[in-house]
Each structure stands twice: as structure tokens, then as C-alpha cells.
Amino acid sequence: MLQDSFGRRFYYLRLSITDVCNFRCQYCLPDGYQGQAQQFLSLNEIDTLVNAFAQMGTSKIRVTGGEPTLRRDIVDVVASCAQTEGISKVAMTTHAGKLASLAEPLAQAGLKQVNISLDSLEPAQFALLSGQDKLNAVLDGVESAIVEGMNVKVNAVLLRPWAEAQLRDFTAWLKDMPVTVRFIELMETGQHKAFFKSHHVSAEPHLAALKAQGWQVLPRGKDAGPAIELAHPDYVGRIGFIMPYSSDFCDSCNRLRITALGKLHLCLFSEQGLDLRESLESGNVQAVKDFVASSLADKKVSHYLQEGITGITKNLSMLGG
Ligand code: SAM
């Protein structure tokens, strides 16, 4: 099992398979994707990578991007991860614009969990925040994933001045929706420092207000990530909070990240990506294992976001959020 010098164990890999995204979320790619066409990891390279991580104790893979469903071979990528010995859970983070038609083949390929990014249930607000007038397509994607029996989580970034409306609308929606809505505090990234300053809002008062309304914090599993989850007897769905600015956030870090170009990031906000591409291209599983195991000694105790340090992360589409 991969373990760092602070005793944290890493059984969870976030694998970006493309940088490209066709949404224009205001806090991520407000001007749309600006990159050049690049040689993203091939299926063979993904296979080598996932085998190496599985042999080092990784049991969960999250496929992310950019927008992972923009890759034509997305179903094969999921199948390849799901069929790897030692991998018990494959999840995906997506904007879900294409999920209505993909949910069935993805479920058949072994996708167990989908995290859908959805910042507003109000059509005009959704279009304003995401740059795409596609709320209905996204909601159809949510339905299709539920029908396929996937564990569905919705990620909503809390934003000033809309946070109260976000909380109100999503909470009402959860009365009958069997999903978990996780409210994420906006994180500062290299390209969006001004947006962060004007729109970041703390989740603390919202968490306190929900507790006062009878929402109860669920016990955290031993290997749980940093989300705090709440349930209420009158609601089918659950609520979660991801608060990267809380002081103990990094204590439960259990994940490593690989970019679509084959770089290992020890943290979402690391100063550099560590290049694995040569070993991936040559299919050298042992070299990947050696590289990852020795790199882990450099993992820092914190992301240092509280100090405004954002590393090389210009926006989260580079790495997958
Ligand atoms: N395209 C996919 C999607 O829309 O879910 C995957 C990539 S997207 C970068 C992953 C997640 O990161 C989304 O839920 C998005 O809301 C979140 N995200 C992006 N920038 C963020 C920021 N600055 N702070 C907090 N969350 C952010």
C-alpha cells in the first residue's frame, strides 16, 4: 500500500484522460478550452498505469478531465479500469451533458459511481454559470445514471451571491431525489484569483443552518475522503460539504492524480507534475511503480491553499478537480 511520510495511505487514483471541455464554467474555463490538440494517454498507457497502481494497493479509480465523455473511447477506458485485478470501484466526474445516452454502456462497462457537476437547478442561472444552455440534458443524465443503478453524487460549487439560493433549491430537490448533493467551497486557482476573491464563500454557516434544521452529520468511514455528509429523515437524498479551507482538510487525503499527459501530481495544487510518460509508453509497469513509490516521499502535509498558494494549477480542467 502506498503511504506517505505523514502516514496517509493512497488507495484512490484520479485519472484525467483529456484536458478538453466544451463547457465554460465561470470559475474554470470561462473563455472555453484554449489548448492545442495533444496526445492524451492512450488505452494501452492507461492499462499500464492502472495495473501499476492496482499492484500498489489502489482499489478505486476516478476517471475525470477536462470532460471525460468527450473521448470517443470513454466506454473502453472505463472497461479497462474496471477489468483490472484489484480495482473494485470505477467512478467518473462529468458535466453529464452526454450522460443520458452513455449511462447504459458505461454501467455495462463497470462504472459504479458518477459525480455530476451541477451548480444550479434554475435554467438561466445554470446557463450563466456553465456557458451552456443544457440543464435539461444534464438532468436527463442524472436520471439515466439513477436508472442504471449508479451511486450518483452532484457537485455544486458554492458561489457568492447565489449560495443561499443554491442551498434552498438543491435541498428542496433532495426531498425525492436519491442522490447526494455536495457543496464545494470555491478554490483559488492560478487563472482566477479575482473571481475567487469576489465569489468565494465559506460553507460553515450553511452547514450550521442545516444542522439547526434537523440534518444530522453521518459518521465518516475509515477510508472516507474529506466530505462531511448529512442526512434527514424527511429527505431521500443527502447533503455533503467539501471544505478545502478547513484546517484538517488534508489529514484525510487518500488520493493521487495523473494528468491526461501522464504526469503524476501529488496534490491538486502541487508545484510540478512528475513525468511518467516514458514508462507508460513503453508499458513498463515496474518502472511506473518504482517512480510513484519514490516520488511519494515528496508529498507535502498540506495544499497551502489558505496561504493563497495555488501551485501550477491554472484551472481545474488541467487536472480534474
Ligand atoms: N468536466 C468534468 C465536470 O464538469 O465534472 C470534470 C472536470 S471538472 C474540472 C471537476 C470538478 O471541479 C467540477 O465539479 C467543478 O465544479 C470543480 N471545480 C472546477 N474549478 C473549481 C474551483 N475553482 N473550485 C472548486 N471546484 C472547482
From TrEMBL:
PROSITE patterns in the cross-refs: MOAA_NIFB_PQQE (PS01305), RADICAL_SAM (PS51918)
GO terms assigned for molecular function: GTP 3',8'-cyclase activity
Listed cofactors: [4Fe-4S] cluster
Keyword terms, alphabetized: 4Fe-4S, GTP-binding, Iron, Iron-sulfur, Lyase, Metal-binding, Molybdenum cofactor biosynthesis, Nucleotide-binding, S-adenosyl-L-methionine
Class of the enzyme per the UniProt entry, highest EC level: lyase
Gene3D superfamilies assigned to the protein according to its UniProt record, in alphabetical order: Aldolase class I (3.20.20.70)
Source taxon at top rank: Bacteria
Ranges where the Radical SAM core domain occurs: 5-227
Protein name: GTP 3',8-cyclase MoaA
